[in-house]
Amino acid sequence: MPPAQIRLGPWTDADLALLRRVNTPEMKKHVGGPETEEQLLHRHRRYLDFAPSGLGRMYRIVLLPEGEAVGTVGYGTRTWEGETVHEMGWNVLPGHQGRGIAAAAARAAVEAARREAAHRHLHAFPSVDNPASNAVCAKAGFTLLGRTDFEFPPGRFMVSNNWRVDLHS
Is the pTM of this model over 0.90? Predict the structure, then answer.
């Protein structure tokens, strides 16, 4: 099967419906489970504010040529080990997984971050128990720095792999 063709679309108010579609027990099993409606609305508002505030970017993943939104990818700002960095995450809807969409979207978002991001390093922290997301990191050009205890969501620690891209190289 040829690699999936995608484009990244900027996050808009209409993408709340997509955010709800990825907020399922299956999709969120490695990150503490689904969020409440209040948490989801807060996340959506934060995503809308990423670009205007300069804190990051959030995108919907659009499958081509159909034009169907099949997932999310983006990065936000956080403090990690005393440094201000960007952290990337992604979701691809179950019916579209296993086709290289997440890796293509992560590569495209890394390239966008190289042009737009305010900080030098972009990290991803997938659970060590999530082989698919760890494979996406490798395919998207991240370097594995090792394992770490990572807090996500707040109050929940998990053993994660710490992957990083140097946006200046």
Answer: yes
